[in-house]
Amino acid sequence: MACDLLVLGNKLGKIDVKMSVSTLVISDVNRFVGMKDFWDRELRDHVNDPFLYSCMLIELWKFSQRVGWHPFLMVFLSGEKIVGFAPLRMRSRFGFRYVSTFDQYTCPEFFYDNYREVCLEQMVNVLFRHLNCESADITVRDESADQRLLEKVCRKRNLRYTRFPQEGQAIIPVKSSLIFFRESLNRKDVREFKRIGRKLDKLGSWQISCFGLDRVSLTRIWEVERHSWKAYLKGKEKAKKDLGLSAILKGVERNGEGVSYFESEVWFLELNGVPISYVLTMKRNKTLFFAKTSFDSRYKEVSPGTFLMNSLIEQVFMNGRADKIDFISNLPVVNVWKPLVVKRITYGILRNVFLSKARRLVFENRVCSKALQILERFKWKRRPN
């Protein structure tokens, strides 16, 4: 009898085959490292997001482990061809298993429309039947086929679900001239950028510089971070921010070690020779991603982060090196450029109402959470630098 292999660490199990789609679940990052070349080749013609290529995914996987999650990758195959995948992570407490997508920016990806429904069926089947999860938070693109099909699968399996809108993904199409783009902005904002330029002139000599990711640029990034708003965080929250940034930077470095699947640059705004803000960009095909940005909070009166991003956006319109700019998230700061927003929505899927209430007590109870926060803060304070 034909069967699929469910791989969970070193354990093998069987899943029924449907429409010749098999499901491979990988929870060991070293197992994924062994198949990274195959993974990247399969994604090359279908996926534009740099964070889903092995160089980035491996580092984000390790980061997720370090902050207390058990990440795993669900891969859907037709023969030896990947037709879709879902990056997920799991937590277990007092016997209750809870699963979510890697973060609110990551959605399951399906390469072919005719495989979407069967892949979603198998994903839900693995989560609630084979992994015995009580609840799962799955993020998909709003008003998409994945949304409609996920609801259909949940109804078919009598699973309750609740919708939670997410912040979405801000995108600026680069289809017009710089003059037209400037005219599309609020006059007040255009005047504000000019005012910031004059304030920088009064403060001294300033320039915008570009580097590849090397020792010099890494030193400058951490110099900015040392005085950013994150510097005021303590314990676990500060450690998580630092570990998250380190994971991204290591992933970009890993991309340069072999076959490169995206271009990367770090842009700095310098004042009197001191970096006061930076933007880490990644470019794949004709999309430029603003992957990470921060600024020195001692200079917040000149909005150095926003000023630098605006300068980079204007450069893209002038040189035409990209067809669109992707902010990945949709934070309020980007509204000044009036981007288009690709909405995302998270589905909270529940096995049953009674157990979902128990799960809420276990995972979201404020007293329990506060006690755990105190213990975790003590643990992270003792953690060596």
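(the above was protein one; protein two follows)
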Amino acid sequence: MKQRSVEIRNTGKGNVISRPSHVCYALTIDLAEDRHFLDSLHQEARALAERVSAEQANTAQIRSPDILYLDCLSGCLAEQASVIWLNTALKEGVASRPPADSARNQIDLLLGASSKTIEVRSSFVRNGLEFALFQKERDSGRQYIDILGPYQNPSYKASERYKDYYLRVLFPGVKQKCASLLATEGYTFYITGGATKEMMQSDDFSYIKDLSPREGEVLAAGNYRVIPLGQSLDSDQFLAAVKTENRLWENGL
């Protein structure tokens, strides 16, 4: 995939936040060069969908086979793209994907020998990247798209552990057309950046948001810790945070 850093500017159109711009990492499909990569991606997504289908049979979280496959396809692509980005921008081999021996594996990526965890979440944005980065709801003043953190229960301890880092990947378009989008020459998707564990734990950056599966963001309804994209680290800031926290430029991880 072709890779480049792009700065998306806030044009001020619509009901937008005050952030003037957001640096993202763009990845563009090259059908000739990426043929083997895409074939392998589809194979992995089919295998993962089979495991998820078997595991969800005993739960109430049932997705149709088509949606399940598309979720697995976009999720696998988001993780692989994040590995490519981190290894290109930081240091070859610094990021890896642990073996997924279960469809419930929640550790998406590992960072170097320190084994720090990175959770990767992806979404489709039918209204485009600029909308996702800068637009907010008129009534609540909250942004539509967030960095998604762990499930929270206000009455008890969090039912999910915090990861060390969170990454967000956005796919322009609609989920139902994911397979055809990936077969389109020049299709581009974006890593927007993310957040650290400390940011996700801090009320200065994050808040608790009620989410449901019908919105396509989560599998189970409930309260989740989230950071609005406007409060998150863009891709350059995320890389700088990882370098600083892990002293990567001195002795690696």
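Reviewer note on protein two: The chain has a mean pLDDT of 86.
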